[in-house]
Amino acid sequence: MSNPLQTVQQLVQAIRPADAEVMQQARARQAQLTKPAGSLGLLEDISVRLAGVFGTPQPHPRGVAVIVAAGDHGVTAEGVSAYPPEVTPAMVANFLAETPWGSGGAAVNAIARTVGARVYVADAGVNADLPAHPRLVAASIRRGTRNLRVEAALTPEETEAAVLAGAALARQAIHDGADLLVPGEMGIGNTTPASAISARMLGLDVAAVTGRGTGVDDVTLARKREVISDALKRQGSAAADPLGVLADLGGLEIAFMLGVMLEAAAQRRAIVLDGFVEGSAALIGVALAPALGDYLFAAGECAEIGHAAQLAHLGLTPMFRLGLRLGEGTGGVLAAPLLLSAAATLREMQTFAEASVPEGN
């Protein structure tokens, strides 16, 4: 396993842009493959980007890991979610449960088993005593965040510690063979900090980035938007200081996912973005390290309002629109076979010359 970087700044400095020369070679190869030009659509674009990530015109990514970080939020005291905070530790137990089908009884477990992805579960800051479990990574910085409506959710020190904890688990997943990393999350109330981060980083109105999350009614949605507006009015952070925004308005699992992304990019691995909460971490990440964007691949555009604005800012095209809004990394895991397939076309298809197939006009 590579040596850990000791600060977030070191992680940021370790990220280099994708290899532009290799991508040019990959585009040239794509143009010669036995198919009409552009006939594989977005897969062609993805394959070229993967070539740049892995530094070879015929990339061969293999292992897929989804890292599910769990954390609680003090802002749930404001009644912003349809579910109580007790659901967070209960879902952690579900991620780890033994079922007739294998380890884990949540959606991300079922989908990961189906596509051959490995699931890592981390306690990044659950507000409960979680029993020790061989498949639970104990990485809690504190038991949930503070109430962002009235004060900063985290201190700068807590934020950095959570980011580095995420980087450490990403490093382990890469050591275990992961070439595609899917950051995922579980935390009741976490679309509230994700919306607050998005509003601040994108400079958008609260209503444009604040949706129903777990499916709240109109009254709760109005309260949620009011809570976020109050948090922004505190003026506890500015977009020019991304880590400050994360500390002020974020969550422990959001910081943890940021660490996963930074470490993956530093080690030249592809990052598959799931949904809105993951997108808020990516907004912080590209503000810190613009080259991080080269390593991000958007799975789908989720049903949560504001996700499209995140993707537009990140310059990412989603691979599907399935109306997902679950989180856990589910959409990212669903997208992993598309990335692997895109790489396979560039790597394994023959060119017209290799196959002795006449080219079209």
Note the quaternary state here: single chain
Number of domains: 2
The CATH H-level superfamily of the largest domain is Nicotinate-nucleotide-dimethylbenzimidazole phosphoribosyltransferase (CobT), large domain
End-to-end C-alpha gap: 50 Å
Corresponding CATH architecture of the largest domain = 3-Layer(aba) Sandwich
Strand proportion, as a percent range, falls in 5-15%
Task: Tally the helices.
Answer: 15
Molecular structure report:
This protein is α/β, with parallel strands linked by helices and 361 residues long. The protein folds into two domains: 8-59 and 345-355, Nicotinate-nucleotide-dimethylbenzimidazole phosphoribosyltransferase (CobT), small domain (5,6-Dimethylbenzimidazole Phosphoribosyltransferase, Chain: A, domain 1, Orthogonal Bundle); 63-339, Nicotinate-nucleotide-dimethylbenzimidazole phosphoribosyltransferase (CobT), large domain (Rossmann fold), CATH 3.40.50.10210. It is 47% helix and 11% strand. The protein contains 15 helices and eight strands. It has helices spanning 8-13, 20-32, 42-54, 87-96, 107-115, 156-175, 191-202, 206-209, 218-233, 242-249, 252-266, 276-288, 307-314, 330-348, 352-355, and strands spanning 63-71, 98-99, 102-103, 118-125, 136-138, 178-186, 270-273, 296-298. The strands form two sheets. It has a six-stranded parallel beta sheet with strand order 5-4-1-6-7-8, with helices on both faces. A hairpin with a 2-residue loop joins strand 2 and strand 3 (102-103). The model has no long low-confidence stretch (mean pLDDT 96). Its EC number is 2.4.2.21.
